[in-house]
Amino acid sequence: AVGDAYRAWLRYAPLLPDQAKEYAPWCGKIVVASSGTAPLLAPAVEELAAGLGSMLGREPRRGQAADGEGCLVVGTLDSAELQGVADDAEAKALGDEGYVLRTVDEPGRRFIAIAGRTDRGALYGAFHFLRLLQTGRPIADLRIAEKPSGKIRMIDHWDNMDGSIERGYAGESVFFREGRFLEDPEDRKRLRDYARLMAAVGLNAVAINNVNVHEIETKLITPELLPSVAKAADVFREYGIRLYLSINFASPIEIGGLSTADPLDPEVKRWWAERAADAYRHVPDFGGFLVKADSEFRPGPFTYGRDHADGANMLAEALEPYGGIAIWRCFVYDCLQDWRDRTTDRARAAYDHFRPLDGKFRDNVILQIKNGPMDFQVREPVSPLIGGMRHTNQLLELQITQEYTGQQRHLCYLVPQWKEILDFDTHALGEGSTAAKAATGELFGRPLGGFAAVANIGSDLNWTGHLLAQANYYGYGRLTWSPELTSEQITDEWARISFGHDPVVIGTIKRMLLESWSIYESYTSPLGIGWMVNPGHHYGPNVDGYEYSKWGTYHFADSKGIGVDRTVATGTGFAGQYHDVPAARYELPESCPDELLLFFHHVPYRHRLKSGKTVIQHIYDSHFEGTEKAEELVKAWRSLEGKIDEERYESVLDRLQLQAAHAAEWRDVINTYFYRKTGIPDEHDRKIY
Ligand code: GCU
């Protein structure tokens, strides 16, 4: 049964009579207006018809012309019907993806225009219009013009063809099972619904397979599997989404019969040029290749004494004739480190590898940079590589799937974290040089840029396992379109769309979401140090789990102090990779923000934080308080019993209860570890084991 959980933000719940009365006069008829072929108008109209039908109880008619009665006109600004709706300058400013929503209310001319310069713009406009109704906004006097801030707004799936998902917490892949593509009509329908969910929040690019490309997936770029890739691409194309494939850098050897994958070898170049040609033969609007190379045992140009620019440029050259893009990931570090070696700092790695190559990449290469210098921890500083390169396109990579943030068993709403990242001032060109502007390319006038994030969805009926984790996906999409939206705005939208307008319900859910990241942070690893999880699967507390391993993720806790000295003066020098203002702020414990103190400094347990507490007391307090707050989440949700449907109520309740119990486990493991290490008692004499 397809319920509200499956429909997610396209649930289109029936509106209250008052609201319906306000909207209905504009929504009785839809007129399609375009001057040429405009394939994306069909899904726009279909969505409007279905959405309005469900919300207003009556499907709009399809009409030929606006006739002064009040209707919706959906289309492109060059059509006869939409003449004059936007002037030339306004239209030009919309670019290829923007739109206007405009109420025209003149004698003989009464309609709401949902219009772009392109049909793609109109499609995004249609979703925006539907969102206005879903969130109860007025429509009688619309004057909205919007366009996305990032050109590329991408989702990376870490799906394997056996159906498993690397770091997936919501069932199996929606693309693959047992080595093949899922191609039954029902699977197609689900994929199409997924494309709708993506387009509804403005996403326009998808990589369907894991960046760790294993044996079968290496063949995705061959004529054997490209016909199936093409069928998946057809589904996404209908919603304006371009499909990308993750590739294996060693493909020329593994499937090409060559003896090398050296990016400067003419035969290797020719081989990749042929693969690109094949890909575009099957998928004319193929997006390009996504590459994890020389990273965590993946092959790459280093084997041949070449650098990342050689590797990325070779692929970009192959894709260039077709308008394709090579997305090259910067998650490159020494993953065979000796924990005794204090000179190597994993945090430095991405910048050290890529910064010297700035200016060497072709224009159709984009470097994909994780938000932090380590790996999607609950708290990290922003990577200094973001805004660190002026002559190179960037994509900011986030992780929606909650690998290190509770694996969708814990509630951890990440939009507030992402907002801090996007708003971070890199000072690359002085004040106001935000990470968001660096990523979109606005800061340095780059031709390409945007955002990518690892998906949190799978075959679970509600897509995300934890129902409330849908908000993370939704929020990611909204932020890639408008990074300036506030967490509060996005949360309010999502809560209303998903749960209606009862102020108690909405208020409670919003509070729960907005506090959840800080709650999760407070009962897990303290003050920016990260890790302290079980190795391998990364769930649950294990303070020394990674302390003596090869991965470069250490906390250096002894009986006197804890933290990593990353200062220029006495440490690894990582703090010096930032531009002047943040570099100075992080260099000194006095100016370093509390929440990142242990990321940048090794301090004694009695070091006093800006909050006035000592580090050790902060650890105790935050773990006791965080666990209490996790229990309060359960109580808050229970207060909504009977106010939301049972299915969604029960499924969330289960997870919140599990979270509360598991938070107590975190609290006890962490507090006990530090109590035993330090022998310093809790000032409040609470139970520590
Ligand atoms: C993390 C994650 C891996 C993933 C890697 C990556 O290390 O645990 O599963 O492959 O990031 O981003 O490439």
Automatic annotation (TrEMBL):
Keywords assigned by UniProt, alphabetized: Carbohydrate metabolism, Glycosidase, Hydrolase, Polysaccharide degradation, Xylan degradation
Enzyme class, broadest EC rank: hydrolase
GO cellular component terms attached to this protein's record: extracellular region
Domain Alpha glucuronidase N-terminal: 8-129
Active site: E296, D375, E403
The enzyme's E.C. designation: 3.2.1.131
Keyword Hydrolase carried by entry: yes
Single GO MF annotation: alpha-glucuronidase activity
Residue ranges occupied by any Glycosyl hydrolase family 67 catalytic domain in the UniProt entry: 133-463
Reaction catalysed by this enzyme: Hydrolysis of (1->2)-alpha-D-(4-O-methyl)glucuronosyl links in the main chain of hardwood xylans
Family, as annotated: Belongs to the glycosyl hydrolase 67 family.
Quaternary organization: Homodimer.
UniProt name for this protein: Xylan alpha-1,2-glucuronidase
Organism: Cohnella xylanilytica
